[in-house]
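Field reference: "sequence" (input) and "structure" (output). Example, TerB family tellurite resistance protein:
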Amino acid sequence: MSFSKWIGAAIGWSFGGPLGAIIGMALGGIVDGITDGDGSPLLGERQSDRRGSRDPYRQQRTSQSQQRPRTQSGDFEVSLLVLASIVIKADGKQDQRELDFVRQQFTNMYGKERANHAFKLFKNVTKQTISTRQVCTQIRVMMDHPSRLQLIHFLFGIAKADGIVTEDELKQIYTIAGYLNISNRDFESIKAMFYNSSDNAYKILEISKSVTDDEVKKAYRRMAKKYHPDRVSHLGKEHQAGAEEKFRQVQQAYEHIQKERGFK
């Protein structure tokens, strides 16, 4: 797949608003005059769309009653690239293990060729100064809640790639989660999947240790539904592995509490 075809596949609502400006600048550092199938400048056309009435981000902001557009794999990929670049710079340095994690995750999700294109773009994105609030506002407006939860899970994976989530990284992910309208309970649930402590199983299920066995069972059913991989099936099979990992951790948390309390 050529670079221009890959970009063409990745373009959706993410090529409007601040995300589009960031990706456009990153593309400018890679190739000059990318063209689409009819030979016209691909980037130039999309920049024109952003200025015109067809900009989906602008339309969504001005009409809250308008239906949220369906997030596709490319939109998720672009959002991931930008947010990952923010987290990876949170502690003032770019650890090679974190960069390797990003590349490996892209390879696992998209295959080697597409991952190479994405990582090339990612490295140019990391060179930019990005407004976290503006980017997250666009993602919050345009992206469904299950997909936003998946973004937070991935960001914790990046931060943990070097063996520890630093305080600066944690604060940055917390800030991103807030801008994405992720509740504190959901944030703590995903965070607990990357830490080892005696009450992590309860945090993953978003309950306290004082709840009854019946409440544990109800919490498990609720969380299994919230994190079920089918909730992000619209993103494509490439994102199922991450969703399945969250779902698996919910199951493991429930089994841990079952064993600890001795109920079935």
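The chain has 14 helices and no strands.
The radius of gyration is 19 Å.
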